[in-house]
Records
---
Amino acid sequence: MRIDHYLHRSAERHAGKTALVAGETRLNYAELKTMSEAFAAALIVRGATPGDRVVLLMDNGWRMAVAIFGCWMAGAVVCPVNPSTKEARLSQILDSSTPFAVVAEARLEKMVSDTAGSSELLRIVSGVSNPSGDGIDFDALLEQAHVALPQNLPETDLAVIIYTSGSTGEPKGVMLAHDNLDAAVRSITSYLGNTSEDILLGVLPLSFGYGLNQLLSSVFVGGTLVIEKSFAYPHLIFERIREERITGFALVPTMLSIMMQTRDLSQNLFESLRYVTAAAAPLPTVHGDWLRTFLPHVGLFRMYGQTECTRISFLPPEDLDRKRDSVGIAIPGTSTEVVDEMGDSVAPGTTGELVVSGPHVMRGYWRNEVATARALRTDAATGRMRLHTGDLFTCDAEGYLTFVARKDDIIKSRGEKVAPQAVEAVLQTMPGVSDALVIGVAHEVFGQAIKAIVIAPGAAITEKDVMRHCARHLEVHMVPTIVEFRDFLPTTDTGKVSRRLAAQDTENNR
């Protein structure tokens, strides 16, 4: 099914029901559909054709949701970009995607103009009634008279191109078709048990695959999505959960770390919560234990995924004690296998690369055949296309997956390979430590030295304390020889802790 059909169906079934809450704005399904159709019409009368790309450089909010569904109704491809993106990266994305239009917040209008130069790019400005230059007011477009919208567009059409940085920092455009997204949404909502009674919290960027999925899942089941711009003010978010009676809260581990450090946090704020999902980065076991103790009535779903296929695995809440370090089993409709360097399946408990197949796997990387060929390969035995994730895993005899490390993250120290997550797991058990990140640093003798970046607010912990703690629990070659204390870990604009940024910081300060 095409994703825009979700909105048509929910508008028929739940016309007067609240679809979106964003600040003081509340839109029901009929209103969301009407606005999206108007935006689609505005694109079409200005020359948009199916397959054209539209870059959305927008804050979380109702306008972005309207733009997303409006693009799809026009047959366009959505290229969501985080509004915190810098000019150099935006330039790369515009050069790659060659969009028909850019929709941007008013404060970003100049950056878009400077970056786009003299190109014949339709510029739509959100959040201001009188844009400067050639910009068109977003809200004015919603007054566009109805025109015939494309009909019977195939579900195999591209829906989104989401740019990711990967280990190199160069943006790669992940191509996901409507049928890819549809397969993921149906699978995820099935194991989360989502219904039209759910009220989901969308605090993650809609430009982020995990954040976008909250919108798609909510519209698919006819639920309500409460959209927040960010997690910058946690107390306000927690109060919002109470006010709106949120039932589903999608977060990343850094957000849970902030929750753990919040003083006088009342359980009463979260009475309505049915479940919490944790994805985008490995969830430390100690973080999960804290949440389950603090909110015992809430189901915690630990999940693993990639932009290239949305979601890969989930750990059911009832398995959290039995499989403490696992990211679970393959989501419905997905096949997973852990393979060696020759592509052959490895024995249970043996580390190898995770490969994935299923209807949710991307079409490839936009205009990047080399990267596509590396990631997508045909299995000679079955003829199926498989995604090589670049992540190292083990799989036990029951099919439960455990994340080991990104291939690119493996530290080679003293002739041994060290998975940084194994060191981080030990650091996170140290009293006073709220979070930690481990990276490899060039070393003349060791090849790479192990550096630990430690967050320990208010704790009287020294470098030697950290090293001694690690020495009690780890082999000698895994013990950090460099310890740095910080107030926070470096993160990407989607809230994911970034080893690449940490390594850049270290190199710049040498």
---
Amino acid sequence: MERTTIKALTTCLACLVTVGLVNSVGAKEVIPQLDRTKLPGRPVKVAAICIGFGGEHDAKLTLALEHLHTAGQNGVDIACLPEEFAGTDAEPVPGPTTKAVARLARKYNMYVICPVREQAGDAQYNTAVLIDRQGEVAGYYRKVFVFWGEGLHLSREGVKAFDTDFGRISILTCFDLNFPELWRQCDALDVDIVFWPSAYGGGSPLNAYATLYHYYIVPVGAGNIIDMTGKTFETIEKPNSKQFIATLDLDRAFAHYDFNREKVEKMLAEQRGEIEVERQQSEEDLAPWWLFKAVKPGVSVPALLKEYKIETLRAYQHRSRKQINEARKAGERI
């Protein structure tokens, strides 16, 4: 019997074992997912399932499925598993592992990022598979900077952006941390969140990337979920010791002080009770930026900024880079 067939059979057993474990505990009250029509901003609930890299396939898959049950019961919108969490035996996509995970994605109406070692024809990749709320494969990211000795092929596809029903995300994996150009590409793709399945925690470089590029980062190594300000979340739900859940507001936006002071004053005066400044320049934080958030359901920060002709910080940086480089190429003054 071929290895893939054996894995498929044992995966089915793992699913049955998991169902038995969950049912034996008794019915748990399921927390409904966020109703964005009744909440300010654009909230999304994310889960980092930090059960570690590698291990024996069936045992780790069973553990992952238990955690996905927990995430689903806690109203999570998107859960991310660690890099090659179920071992390093290669399998196709879709394959036994992704199919088992997809069943729970569909059951709980949540996205799941499921990293596997992918067999694609004669090639093998370290691949993070995005499964949508219907349990379908919505996309994949193949690790760009494979670590020395992994014995895997190198992705030629680069960084990708995936549009979900709550926002735009990218995925980078483990050793990719060390290559700033990948993180800048995520910024260029205008993503809201970067998920980072890994074999370790990552530490302060992740905080630096979040500060520079103004996106959330969800590392799946040590549970250190990072805000778009660059600060690690202090308020985290922990349904167990290996699962970390946070609610992110993807509607928040930065704007630079340059050229915007009068426009911002006008907006805040006319839209009192709709939008507020969450953070601005202080002695502690000398970055000349405002951070805005909506305080009323149905209010969009980006839409209000556009109405008052206030560029977001990201748009300002992108435009400035493009236009200044064009002037440089043309030999013009600015």
